Amino acid sequence: MSLTITEDCIYCDICRPACPNRAISAGDELYVINPNLCTECVGHYDEPQCQLVCPAECIPRLPEFAETKEQLWEKYERISVEIVS
Q1: What is the pTM of this model?
Q2: DSSP class of residue 3?
Q3: In CATH, what number is assigned to the domain containing residue 33?
């Protein structure tokens, strides 16, 4: 997962319900993304929904933490099995 929420977050709560994996939660001063749950919307959408809806444009990709589409897909499959169980 290469997405992060920066200090520019305005704490508006638009990104949290947009996340199909429930990877975004409220932190003390800004929202945070759980890297174990974020698939960058692979398995659900073509683009990360949090980035599309964020009015502050504060959810960039961090190339140094990039995962391949295959890795994100494997995570999506794992998460899907855990939700069903």
Answers
A1: 0.89
A2: B
A3: 3.30.70.20
